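Cont'd.
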Amino acid sequence: MDKIGIEEMIRSLSTLRTEKMYLKDFFHTWKHSDDEIRATFEVAEILRGMRENNISSRVFDSGLAISLFRDNSTRTRFSFASACNLLGLEVQDLDEGKSQIAHGETVRETANMISFMADVIGIRDDMYIGKGHTYMKTVAQAVEDGHYDGVLEQRPTLVNLQCDIDHPTQSMADALHVINEFGGVENLKGKKLAMTWAYSPSYGKPLSVPQGIIGLFTRFGMDVVLAHPEGYNVMPEMEGVAAKNAQKSGGSFSKVNSMAEAFKDADIVYPKSWAPFSVMEERTKIVETGDQQALKELEKRCLAQNAQFIDWECTEELMSTTREGKALYLHCLPADISGVSCEKGEVAASVFDRYRDPLYKQASFKPYIIAAMIFLAKFRNPSEKLLDLLTDARKRIY
Amino acid sequence: MDKIGIEEMIRSLSTLRTEKMYLKDFFHTWKHSDDEIRATFEVAEILRGMRENNISSRVFDSGLAISLFRDNSTRTRFSFASACNLLGLEVQDLDEGKSQIAHGETVRETANMISFMADVIGIRDDMYIGKGHTYMKTVAQAVEDGHYDGVLEQRPTLVNLQCDIDHPTQSMADALHVINEFGGVENLKGKKLAMTWAYSPSYGKPLSVPQGIIGLFTRFGMDVVLAHPEGYNVMPEMEGVAAKNAQKSGGSFSKVNSMAEAFKDADIVYPKSWAPFSVMEERTKIVETGDQQALKELEKRCLAQNAQFIDWECTEELMSTTREGKALYLHCLPADISGVSCEKGEVAASVFDRYRDPLYKQASFKPYIIAAMIFLAKFRNPSEKLLDLLTDARKRIY
Amino acid sequence: MDKIGIEEMIRSLSTLRTEKMYLKDFFHTWKHSDDEIRATFEVAEILRGMRENNISSRVFDSGLAISLFRDNSTRTRFSFASACNLLGLEVQDLDEGKSQIAHGETVRETANMISFMADVIGIRDDMYIGKGHTYMKTVAQAVEDGHYDGVLEQRPTLVNLQCDIDHPTQSMADALHVINEFGGVENLKGKKLAMTWAYSPSYGKPLSVPQGIIGLFTRFGMDVVLAHPEGYNVMPEMEGVAAKNAQKSGGSFSKVNSMAEAFKDADIVYPKSWAPFSVMEERTKIVETGDQQALKELEKRCLAQNAQFIDWECTEELMSTTREGKALYLHCLPADISGVSCEKGEVAASVFDRYRDPLYKQASFKPYIIAAMIFLAKFRNPSEKLLDLLTDARKRIY
């Protein structure tokens, strides 16, 4: 995208209503209007375009972005760091210890103590059903109160870097990738996306990716199919969100218990392992009791159950049944690749290999999506600000 | 504070003598003149005012600030990171391992090796009596020599983020909070402050907070009362500093062995646990021998001794005996709150709850105090530099 | 160096051909032309001069530098952080876990995932023969491919912060120190440098320092002598590089099995412990099998072997046999100092003490060397860019 293209996209952005994002958080895509979702895509593209044209989008002369990862993460950590650095914010990690499930008052105090000069807080807390989003809301309320009470000079914006319910920076990056591959969001209408469970030799993978995908892609008039073995349900509320979105957008949302059926004539496939919602609930309860023995037994039982569905693998044969045998293969990475990272996994090595470049491109949108979420929360009139940056054209590399 | 207010405060600052702070360190408040203490408060307020008016106070285009925490710390770490970021310095952590007590030559070499491009070094080393300040002096001497010998292009400024003797960034932030609450430092004259020991279910909390408080607040013409059970003495030298300050400032410094007596008609109360000086000395000797058994026995003995004073708690009843029942409650946080963070602790939950906002505000001054200490060490003519920043009015957020 | 001096050095730089460094990596000094080596020295000196004159050399308005240390490191970590900060890059650490020996596909994926906004990647991987450099090449190829395939907007530059073969940021910093001590690279012609093994109570120190030194200093027309006990050979290929360089530069490269012989009339001595190449090979194989018992036996055997050469120590007596008894003593630090950091080590305490300042100065060049390597990889016309910076004369400290 050249400067003319960037300027055009800024004009398009100026027609969208984003004022409700100003000084607010980004938790779940379905809490945001179509304008807001579209604006996030456009700001991401504009920031990417500016960077490719060596135009600085550093809008903070100083400022802190706090990262709080309650789970190991290299990719999301680097995406967040990249996004913040692009805008001029310095990342400071808050390391609370992974295993802790913090309580109300402590969270409130800590949230204020770290936020005196914080412009952004990015949180990843995806491990326990009923916990992650609740924790983020507690932090958000704490800094809201802190700002109201005059403790905090500014109210930091929260960005959900993955919770137990949604993974908006992932699904939005995935969507922006798809939009680019299909040449525009309008071209997604009527396309079939198969979000399907796949076998993995591990258990307990979060639900936030499949939930985030069905919750977002149903907005684009697509035929979204959720496929999984019986019992591997996602949260019922999320199926409701998907159904409602589909109805509104003129698409469809359906469920099947067969990977083959989901793949049939699909334009896009997203085969990925997750743990059943009921197992995630059970696990959370066990973790709260601290019963290591029960945790081991749960794992053993779940792995045995998973083993029944070892044929839920994204093979060449299955891929050949998709639209012209050329469906776009998506994954949030890292994938469990059969014969590479494990004996049997989510995807055949040859399929994964063939889609390596698109997969890496898919991931490349995440830093820009995060930066866009921050940008839209920090500027009441984002298009004006972006036009200023484009006009100034300060070089990123001198 | 608006721009006019900031400009007025800069003019006030310009009348103070701060040239001896230039290129020097900040170790103990009592090593600094009244002008220097006042200048630190004023620069902190000015930097805060500028930030609130979206004026950048980034005075370093590049530069490193090294943090060296020989003890876990979230709050001080974030305060230091915030202060450095506000001025344009990037924090780089030096992680030497907590348990090590480093020796002279190693310290000298390491201090030089990390300082080739360091503008600031912030150190927290509060655990062992006779060690923390000594360590900081060793580092300061090493970089002084390094600069003199042409090894270091610049001499980094040291900021004491808590040692075994003083905790100047805490006591100065506390004081600035009190000054704001009472509407000016001149209003502190004749006010009664009770720095009092309080019960905690742990042992071994550092002495630097009570010592820092009696060492600083006695400068403002206040009646400072230090209260603790018999035997829970602070360092004798520090009582001397407090007495001398009080005499000079026209206030008073006294000691009592009753929390009730200290609270009576107090304008400000600071109930907080600490370990007796003699115990801290004993513990340091044991740690040096590495005798884990002896350490456990010491802990057991001290906890048993503490248990005798479980009624040293800041209750509603005690609070009602303070001036109009409305003394300002201070704490450096986190507090041991009865029935919340422990069964019985330093303060009743209802008291703590009532003072939550002021407590958070108290903490909010620390980043600005640290930034002010750095600023005064880096600019020979701080008021001129601040006036330049105000005139330029470069935006912090674009 | 004043501004006139800086400008003169920039003019000198403009006569050197560096276009092949543009957008490339820095792995081994011997892969670079004489012009490129000289340009690296000059850019380092220019950046140092500019910093000393409070002129900012921040050429990145935003940007990430990724550090990947597969081994503990304080000094190199700080040198890299300093260099990056000087240029405006923010360091983000990638912590993969020290013990892992990562495999091809994982490396490729991770390299891309962290590089979407990375301008530089600094890697230290020196522990295992045949691994470190191979790993760096894999990363370099991955980001090369990523850039070619449109995944990465820019191709990050790799800087070798120490591999199993070379330690170019060390040897280049050492050389720049020597050049400064001797008043110019032209004065090194005919000077004798003794790179000699020395006793240490540990085993397994990397070969990259002695190899880097003989691979670089032989380029300056010097008489480079490599001394070690029989069997403590470095990699044969590296002796070949040294011999070839010496022939080309009009100097010499020779090997002796006596520390005394090497020191005789030497102008520069570099006594330092390392493990024999054959031991390093054996150790790598054992580590790959994970046989802890075999690893312990190897250590025991090697320490016993080392003990036979406990008299390979840089003593006052040996120093007195050097040119006028005044050879320049070099070490990459930290040194094993007899009676200080160990009972018997590489160097006598009095020798080390006498050379403390020069040793610290030696180390002080490393951040500038790293910054120069990055600078030359990022600008096609480095002298023009440096002249712009000098002319702008933006202040580093406001």
